[in-house]
């Protein structure tokens, strides 16, 4: 076999010059993680001082029994080695002409030294006590961070020892010995050492990201040399990908010297420009998009996503295994010729080059049913081999110049895949083909290749969250595409179960709920803690409490009539009221504006009303309720500002006008954003497409219209009466128009905030509004607590009983 040296010296490689330094996303991520860890240490030492002090005492007592000679040797070794070993590594790097990396590491060490000296000499004396006292446990002889270790840690972090395990082991062992001797001599605390380590790491990674690390990526010439060692004889090579695309892997086209008998020449030469297509995996690129992948991994079930981060070697092995497995399964794919690591910072995979275009680049008139059928046949072979591709986007489907389909991009694949992963692939490819050729052709060609019985398995997984990032972006242009794909499959197989599979561990609104509850606790709990409940119970006017309780019960009757008025079909009144009681239980696990809608829709469907009409009826009642809400808020806001006995601060007509104008300006500014405008238009269009015809049906029956409007107004009146009675139960008094405005405002806030039952938002809004209206803080808080007890918490147990009963009766 021909040696690498000399053989490739004259091989031309057409590629742009690589930058001398790059900014790696991994450095920014590690800098953020180190800063977060430092903040956690500060928090722990401030709230758990006794624990940190006890840990320090235990360590001191444990090391007191160690042989003094051993401790002395450890101290001596660490004192000399903690500086000597990094210096030796720096010299070794200089001999290897890696001086830029050493210079950056020295800069990080200087920055760390300056910061630690500043903390030790200036900050401690300027701000003694608190967290600093916890960090420097042991008296004035200690320091919050240690100048002898932090610069070394920053230097080692910035100089980079990846792939040099012996240097890493020796260096971190000596740093650990230095920390241990500090603990045994009681001039360092555990908290201070943790802070020192995290500070050094943060400075090292921060310096690397700010200055940029020397580019470790191998050049095209190095890639060509590696191909030579694989027994291939490159004659010419060129960069194929766009160098400006920072997130893409490097790809090279390579022409082989087929005339040399000593060289391996895989396959027959295809009628194309290149013999090989080489994909290079750069180590620094492995963290590209890491935060997004981590978010997907946390949010979705484990079987839905792959690993968020893989080592370079693991990525190489996985893609190689998938390439061989796909070829063995009989699916058409470019053949993998060879793999190899390229130094310590990259690896390559060499594929036979297949001349052709990606599916997204093929003109519409060439995307024939024959081509799509061939795509589905290759996919069927993947399914039969239990192979999950996980990235079946347009770029993963290559249409060769011979007109045949090839599956590529196996980096995220999985062998011996489970049923869910295979069904997710089916849903992904259905969406990809539908984006290119329409849902009708996608389903028809899939059915011809896979069989009609295979398609219903994808219906529950046709949800945006189950698809790839690029596909979700493409779906913004056609938000109804997934619905149309489902409809095509259901038309083909009417017995298909269309209920979506739960893929998410949690939804983003769960985070908003937690934040909302935290804010509510911060606002409401201090007020509750300051209340004297014994005094409140003794001073409450109980007949007003009973009136508030009756008004709360009346809300369920009003809500039932509100729904009945917008359903032309006949429904039992008693069961409809029971559904509203059950909704009081559901709203504790769903946002206020969602729980009631869901259970009412389900009730109408179980009552024999078709799904579309059920959704339209509930939507009509919600739409009329919204219009009535806005009209009442404007009317009573005006009356409040015009009434002499009303509050002068809550909602005078001038303030109402200012608020309305401000909201109008915000809405107008938001609508100038195309994405917001499209979202609003799609929501309004979907609402009126079904709601308006339903309203027309209701308008033809004056009795139904009166029932619906009466229930809507009665619901507001019952809640207002409950709030007013709660205020009077504790000796407060407000003009009734002010109470109406307070309720309408707080109810709007509670519906907008995605917390269960508007929890936190309603309490905060009501307390603030009542206080502004003139009530004392004690009376306002007491009234709000009673109101929420009667309307939110007290109905939970009856609501649960009603929910269970209706489920047993198959009514919801």
From TrEMBL:
Protein origin, superkingdom: Bacteria
Source organism of the structure: Actinomadura violacea
Transmembrane segments: 28-49, 69-90, 102-119, 174-199, 511-529, 541-564, 576-599, 619-639, 651-673, 705-722, 734-753, 785-806
Membrane topology label: Multi-pass membrane protein
Cell compartments where the protein resides: Cell membrane
Name of the featured protein: Flippase-like domain-containing protein
Primary location group: membrane
Lineage of origin: Bacteria, Bacillati, Actinomycetota, Actinomycetes, Streptosporangiales
Keywords for this protein: Cell membrane, Membrane, Transmembrane, Transmembrane helix
InterPro entries: L-PG_synthase/AglD (IPR022791)
Pfam families in alphabetical order: LPG_synthase_TM
């Amino acid at each position: 076999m021909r040696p690498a040296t000399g053989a490739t010296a004259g091989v031309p490689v057409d590629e742009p010059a690589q930058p001398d330094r790059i900014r790696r996303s991994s450095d920014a991520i590690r800098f953020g993680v180190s800063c977060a860890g430092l903040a956690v240490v500060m928090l722990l030492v401030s709230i758990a001082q006794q624990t940190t002090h006890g840990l320090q005492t235990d360590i001191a007592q444990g090391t007191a029994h160690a042989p003094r000679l051993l401790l002395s040797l450890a101290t001596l070794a660490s004192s000399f080695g903690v500086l000597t070993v990094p210096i030796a590594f720096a010299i070794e790097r200089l001999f290897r002409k890696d001086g830029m990396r050493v210079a950056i590491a020295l800069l990080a060490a200087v920055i760390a030294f300056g910061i630690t000296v500043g903390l030790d000499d200036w900050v401690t004396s300027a701000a003694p006590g608190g967290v600093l006292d916890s960090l420097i446990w042991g008296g004035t002889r200690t320091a919050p961070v240690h100048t002898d270790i932090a610069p070394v840690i920053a230097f080692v972090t910035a100089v980079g020892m990846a792939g040099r395990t012996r240097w890493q082991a020796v260096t971190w062992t000596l740093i650990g010995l230095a920390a241990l001797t500090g603990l045994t001599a009681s001039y360092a605390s555990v908290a201070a050492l943790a802070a020192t380590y995290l500070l050094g790491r943060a400075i090292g990674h921060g310096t690397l990201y700010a200055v940029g690390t020397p580019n470790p990526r191998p050049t095209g010439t190095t890639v060509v040399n590696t191909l030579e060692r694989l027994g291939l004889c490159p004659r010419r090579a060129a960069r194929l990908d766009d160098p400006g695309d920072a997130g893409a892997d490097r790809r090279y086209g390579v022409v082989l010297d087929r005339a040399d008998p000593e060289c391996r020449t895989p396959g027959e030469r295809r009628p194309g420009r290149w013999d090989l297509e080489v994909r290079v995996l750069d180590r620094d690129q492995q963290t590209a998009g890491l935060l997004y992948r981590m978010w997907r991994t946390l949010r979705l079930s484990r079987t839905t996503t792959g690993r968020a981060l893989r080592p370079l070697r693991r990525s190489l092995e996985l893609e190689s295994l998938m390439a061989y497995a796909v070829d063995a399964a009989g699916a058409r794919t470019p053949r993998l010729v060879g793999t190899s690591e390229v130094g310590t910072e990259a690896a390559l995979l060499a594929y036979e080059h297949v001349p052709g275009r990606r599916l997204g680049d093929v003109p519409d008139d060439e995307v024939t049913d024959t081509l799509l059928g061939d795509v589905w046949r290759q996919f069927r072979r993947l399914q039969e081999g239990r192979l999950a591709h996980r990235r079946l986007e347009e770029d993963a489907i290559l249409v060769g110049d011979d007109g045949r389909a090839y599956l590529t991009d196996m980096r995220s694949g999985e062998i011996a895949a489970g049923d869910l992963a295979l069904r997710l692939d089916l849903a992904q490819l259905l969406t990809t083909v539908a984006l290119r050729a329409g849902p009708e052709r996608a389903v028809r060609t899939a059915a011809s290749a896979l069989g009609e019985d295979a398609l219903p398995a994808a219906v529950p997984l046709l949800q945006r969250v189950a698809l790839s990032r690029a596909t979700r972006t493409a779906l913004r242009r056609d938000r109804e595409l997934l619905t149309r794909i489902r409809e095509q499959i259901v038309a083909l197989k009417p017995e298909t179960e269309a209920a979506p599979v739960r893929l998410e561990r949690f939804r983003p609104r769960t985070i908003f709920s937690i934040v909302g509850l935290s804010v509510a606790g911060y606002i409401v709990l201090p007020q509750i803690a300051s209340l004297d409940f014994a005094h409140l119970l003794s001073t409450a006017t109980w007949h007003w409490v009973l009136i508030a309780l009756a008004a709360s019960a009346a809300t369920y009757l009003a809500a039932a009539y509100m729904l009945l008025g917008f359903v032309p079909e006949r429904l039992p009144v008693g069961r409809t009221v029971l559904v509203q009681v059950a909704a009081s239980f559901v709203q504790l696990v769903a946002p206020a504006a969602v729980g009631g809608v869901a259970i009412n829709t389900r009730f109408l469907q179980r009552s024999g009303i078709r799904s579309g009409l059920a959704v339209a009826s509930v939507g009509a009642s919600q739409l009329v309720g919204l219009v009535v809400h806005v009209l009442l808020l404007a009317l009573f806001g005006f009356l409040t500002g015009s009434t002499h006995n009303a509050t002068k601060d809550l909602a005078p007509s001038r303030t109402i006008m200012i608020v309305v104008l401000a909201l109008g300006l915000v809405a107008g500014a938001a609508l100038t954003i195309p994405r917001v405008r499209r979202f609003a238009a799609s929501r309004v269009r979907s609402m009126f497409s079904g709601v308006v015809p339903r309203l027309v049906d209701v308008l033809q029956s004056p009795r139904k219209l009166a029932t619906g409007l009466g229930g809507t107004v009665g619901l507001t009146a019952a809640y207002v009466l409950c709030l007013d009675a709660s205020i009077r139960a504790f000796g407060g008094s407000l003009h009734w128009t002010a109470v109406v405005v307070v309720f309408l405002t707080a109810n709007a806030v509670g519906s907008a905030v995605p917390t269960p039952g508007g929890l936190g938002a309603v309490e905060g809004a009501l307390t603030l509004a009542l206080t502004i209206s003139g009530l004392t803080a004690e009376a306002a808080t007491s009234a709000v607590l009673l109101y929420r007890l009667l309307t939110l918490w007290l109905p939970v147990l009856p609501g649960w009983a009603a929910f269970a009963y209706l489920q047993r009766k198959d009514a919801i």
